[in-house]
Design brief:
This protein is mostly helical. 59% of the residues lie in helices and 5% in strands. β2 and β3 form a beta hairpin. Pathway: Protein modification; lipoprotein biosynthesis (diacylglyceryl transfer).
Amino acid sequence: MPFLLIDFPVFNPVALSLGPIVIRWYALAYIVGIVLGWIYARSLIKKERLWGGPAPITLPQLDDFILWVTIGIIVGGRTGYVLFYNLPFFIAHPAEILELWKGGMSFHGGFLGCVAAVMLFARRNNIPILSLGDITTAVAPIGLFLGRLANFINSELWGRHADPRLPWAMIFPNGGPLPRHPSQLYEAGLEGIVLFAALAIMIRMGALKRPGLILGSFITIYGVARIIGEHFREPDPQLGFLWGGLTMGMLLSVPMIIVGVIIITAAVRRRANGPAPSST
């Protein structure tokens, strides 16, 4: 074995165990991601200068929205995985659709679930849909980062075969004897850290004053980041590579980029929000 090759550090799949209550790392990532996202969203809503006036959503409304978006993430993520990644299996074993503890969530499905939650909650509470989408996607990279770390800890969704001379190439216990890219960490950096930093900088520069700009930027940057990450990630075994070496993750990200660019263009052309001009 090459000197620099790293053996995967085996983690206990259970993060917390309190008697009959067992919390796995993936569930903990969801819980912590939602809580931290809620805290960050509250801080953004409190800063009127970021919105050019009072935020279009109140703190009590945000608190109520958390339940809606949580349900959207879980239902959408599971539905997306069933439809996009393993439909034949679940047709044959429909009862396992509800067995979430076995894993199997799709970001693209979870995103569509969030979109549905945003639209329904916004209409019910008379909140601008684009602004609620902005605040939701501004905090989303936190959960994406933690989710990818959980994938790494669980030794799942590992990368493609890597050159053994790559200093950070790893031997995953369930990935065969050959070294692989730790693609979960690549995605955590791109979809989590880089995306969060880009959106945070845009927010400080006044992006929330143009409804839809953060939403469109999130969709576009995520789509690009996901396609880059897919070049290092091993495709799901039940799907493998699709046409021309493409993966399902790549194909689902292309429409995101197109829609994101359209939303960005519309947001930039829209007149920015701001304080009412003083009378003279």
